[in-house]
Specification:
Layout lengths: L9 E2 L1 H13 L2 H5 L13 E2 L23
Antiparallel strand pairs: 1-2
Amino acid sequence: MKLSAVDPIFLPETLVGPIFEKSVEGSAVMSLARRVPLSMTANTAVPVPLDVPTADWVAVGGRKPLSSGG
């Protein structure tokens, strides 16, 4: 399955499951913590913000630009 074929707003369980498994393998805290099962059904979708945050300098006391921030 290619990411280009996935609705850009949601990732299906087939892609999200391995991501969570790898994060547990790579994290000392998550590998020792108690696991709480998630309700991952065919109707479950994980929203993924597609906005890329930007950073820049502002003057002291200057106004920061507004952004959507995902």
